[in-house]
Amino acid sequence: MVVEAEDYDAAVRFYRDVLGMGEIAAFSEGGDDRVAILEAGRATFEIASPAHKVAIDRVEADGIPSPKIRIAFEVDDSEAATRDAEAAGAEVVAEPVLTPWMSLNSRVEAPAGLTVTFFEETEDSHERTQRDGFGTND
């Protein structure tokens, strides 16, 4: 799940420090463009600043804005997941695109009004941690 948080710092403190969701990674492109990825059991919980959300919308969907809450699922094959979702009635918002962080992302408007991103990692976690901007606040 990706959540845009107007008060990014307060949201990170609440979910990470109060609820105990461990920080897996944090990214910053400078200024207010920040995101923290938190461990939520079998899922991750991303808190994105408004600037980061806009940046992701540009990369994933040619700037088409996503809602404040968007669900993201890691898949083995982004293209196949997109086609399967489309066949099941989802509206394709954006076809799979290779992102600057080397994942293949697509976006659909799924049944029940949810916006869903499918992402396929093209690098392993070790390769990703070597990239500029990858890190945590731990």
Automatic annotation (TrEMBL):
Coiled coil: none
Domain VOC per the UniProt entry, residue ranges: 1-121
SUPFAM superfamilies hit by this protein: Glyoxalase/Bleomycin resistance protein/Dihydroxybiphenyl dioxygenase
Entry superkingdom: Bacteria
InterPro entries: Glyas_Bleomycin-R_OHBP_Dase (IPR029068), Glyas_Fos-R_dOase_dom (IPR004360), VOC_core (IPR037523)
Pfam families linked: Glyoxalase
Protein name (record): Glyoxalase
